[in-house]
Amino acid sequence: MNPGPTDTGWITDGLRADIVSSTPLGRVGTPQDCANLVTFLCSPEGGWVNGQLLHSNGGIA
């Protein structure tokens, strides 16, 4: 998994504005976003996914 910028307390206000303007979702990633993907990958539904680099970044170009 390759998460994009995730709001864990290190993002400055200026950087937050840059991130928000560069993602189609208009927000910074959260720890819950990462946890949701990990939960899926560890579930039976995600069992067929393997050997992939998943970009979990809200569509940042």
What does this 3D model show about the protein?
It contains two helices and two strands, in the order βααβ. The protein has 61 residues and is mainly α. It has one domain. A two-stranded parallel ribbon has the order 1-2. The longest helix has 12 residues, at 31-42. The model has no long low-confidence stretch (mean pLDDT 94).
Number of strands: 2
Placed side by side, the strands forming the largest sheet appear as 1-2
Which residue ranges are poorly predicted, with pLDDT under 50 across at least 5 consecutive positions?
none
Using only CA atoms, what is the Rg?
13 Å
The multimeric state of the shown protein is single chain
Q: How many strands, what sense, and barrel or not for the largest sheet?
A: 2 strands, parallel
How many helix segments?
Answer: 2
Terminal-residue CA separation: 17 Å
- The pLDDT mean sits at 94
Topology readout:
Elements: E1 2-3, H1 13-22, H2 31-42, E2 55-56
Parallel strand pairs: 1-2
Name its key features.
2 strands, 61 residues, 2 helices, two-stranded parallel sheet, mainly alpha
Summarize the structure.
This protein is mainly alpha-helical and 61 residues long.
